[in-house]
Each structure stands twice: as structure tokens, then as C-alpha cells.
């Protein structure tokens, strides 16, 4: 077993899957989720989702931004569409999202490329999304988030609607768990990992009231998925960055192991 310890900040169930992958690679880890995914519960938001799902056959293209988007969307789709309508092209942001769609027998037209950044920008570069003038596109995602997909598709002439299915919330126990994991007596050769800009923001917010803990965390290597999140991390005071090509397990683990092998 390696002397390094990886701090996992992902929400469940992704945290446990990532921990298992790290264990297979001989890496110790501790899970401190700084985000929890919860289905929208507000009646107005749920009614909005219901109406979009009922009218999903009006769309020519459907984009899923994450595995969570697939999971929550399929719960709604299963309730109202025993058989999915024909004539819709399905798109995924990243290979993990595409695999989640494959599990429910939804064929993906494009995912942005296996070896690319596998983010919104990579998907928008796909030929299948260049000529969309006059088409209706629905984007399945959480509440809030980046607007680059919708903004760019609208510039290309598409009519775009969001189907916002879940919230990203800060877990009630996150601060306590983080304090315990990074307490002086518990410290090891720690590497902190974040898989999204939202997770980084939550981690920074949890550290802010604890100056000594924040200083320690900022001295540790921080593994991030891509240059966009790396830029956010630098602004937050993290300068020891390990930048993976994207947020896939393969890319994150490859970058992590490359660092460990040379230190």
C-alpha cells in the first residue's frame, strides 16, 4: 500500500466508486463528501420538470450533463414514457455520462470524444451540434451551473430549455468530517481531489473559518479535472495543482499515479 492518502470530496455514490478504484491501485483514501445531490422538491420546480418530461417528444436533441442528470431524468422518463419517443438524438457530456445512458439502453450520438476534455466545450465542438438552427434542445442538469451549452446552442439558432432535476447541497456533516480528516493527528501524505468547480467552491467555503486547516490544505497537492477548475483553484489559493485532462476515473488516476511515482 502506498504511503499516500487521497482525500475524496465527491458526492455519493461516485465517492465510493472512486474510492474502490483507488483501492485497486493500492492507494489509501478517506471520503469527505463536500456535496450531496438531492432531487428538486419545490412544487413549482417539480411541475416544471413534469411538463418538460411530458413534452420531451417535442425535442430533436437531448443533452445530459452528468451521471446524476441521467439517474434523475430516467426516474421521470420511466414514470411517463414506458417507451421513449422516436426521433430524438441523445448527447452526453463525457464518457461516464455516456456509459450511464448505455446502462438504460439510450444510444448516444456524441459525448465530446474519449480523449478530449470531455466537458461542455468539447461536446459543442462535435459536428452533430453545429447545424442546429430551428431545432429544439433540452438539457438535463442540476439547478444552476454553467450556461455555456445553452448560450452557444442558442447562438447557433437552437431553442433550448433546461430540465433542472436536482440540487447540489453542502452536507450537514461535511465540516466536522473535514476537520477530523485533516486534523494534525490524522494527517498523512495527503493529496486532495476535487472533480468539479462546485466541489472546489464548497471545499474552500468549509476551510475558510479554519485558517490553520486552510493553510495546510493549500500546501497539499490538489488533483483537479482540467484547466477551468485549475484556474478556479489558483484563485482560491491552491498552487500545487495536478491537472488531469478531464474528470474521468482513468484520467484522474493516471495523473495521480504519475505524480506519486515521481515523488
Automatic annotation (TrEMBL):
Pathway: Porphyrin-containing compound metabolism; protoporphyrin-IX biosynthesis; coproporphyrinogen-III from 5-aminolevulinate: step 3/4. It is an enzyme of class 4 (lyase). It catalyses: hydroxymethylbilane = uroporphyrinogen III + H2O. Gene3D superfamilies: 3.40.50.10090. Pfam families: HEM4 (PF02602). Coiled coil: none annotated. Keywords: Lyase, Porphyrin biosynthesis. InterPro entries: 4pyrrol_syn_uPrphyn_synt_sf, 4pyrrol_synth_uPrphyn_synth, UROS/Hem4. GO terms for molecular function: uroporphyrinogen-III synthase activity. Residues 18-254 form the Tetrapyrrole biosynthesis uroporphyrinogen III synthase domain. Its EC number is 4.2.1.75. Catalyzes cyclization of the linear tetrapyrrole, hydroxymethylbilane, to the macrocyclic uroporphyrinogen III. Belongs to the uroporphyrinogen-III synthase family. This is Uroporphyrinogen-III synthase. It comes from Gilvimarinus japonicus.
Amino acid at each position: 500500500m502506498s504511503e499516500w492518502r487521497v482525500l475524496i470530496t465527491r458526492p455519493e455514490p461516485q465517492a465510493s466508486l472512486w474510492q474502490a478504484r483507488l483501492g485497486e491501485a493500492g492507494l489509501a483514501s478517506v471520503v469527505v463528501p463536500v456535496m450531496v445531490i438531492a432531487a428538486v422538491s419545490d412544487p413549482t420546480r417539480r411541475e416544471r420538470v413534469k411538463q418538460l418530461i411530458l413534452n420531451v417528444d417535442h425535442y430533436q436533441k437531448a443533452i445530459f450533463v452528468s451521471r446524476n442528470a441521467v439517474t434523475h431524468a430516467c426516474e421521470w422518463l420511466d414514470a411517463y414514457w414506458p417507451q421513449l419517443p422516436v426521433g430524438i438524438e441523445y448527447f452526453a457530456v463525457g464518457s461516464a455520462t455516456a456509459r450511464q445512458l448505455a446502462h438504460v439502453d439510450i444510444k448516444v450520438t456524441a459525448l465530446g470524444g474519449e480523449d478530449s476534455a470531455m466537458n461542455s466545450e468539447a461536446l459543442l465542438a462535435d459536428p452533430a451540434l453545429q447545424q442546429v438552427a430551428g431545432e429544439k434542445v433540452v438539457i438535463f442538469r442540476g439547478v444552476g451551473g454553467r450556461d455555456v451549452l445553452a448560450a452557444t446552442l442558442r447562438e447557433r439558432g437552437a431553442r433550448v430549455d433546461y430540465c433542472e432535476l436536482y440540487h447540489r447541497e453542502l452536507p450537514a456533516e461535511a465540516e466536522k468530517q473535514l476537520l477530523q480528516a485533516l486534523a494534525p493527528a490524522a494527517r498523512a501524505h495527503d493529496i486532495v481531489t476535487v472533480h468539479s468547480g462546485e466541489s472546489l467552491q464548497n471545499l474552500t467555503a468549509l476551510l475558510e473559518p479554519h485558517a490553520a486547516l486552510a493553510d495546510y490544505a493549500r500546501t497539499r497537492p490538489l488533483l483537479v479535472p482540467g484547466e477551468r477548475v485549475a484556474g478556479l483553484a489558483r484563485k482560491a489559493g491552491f498552487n500545487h495543482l495536478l491537472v488531469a485532462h478531464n474528470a474521468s476515473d482513468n484520467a484522474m488516476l493516471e495523473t495521480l499515479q504519475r505524480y506519486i511515482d515521481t515523488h
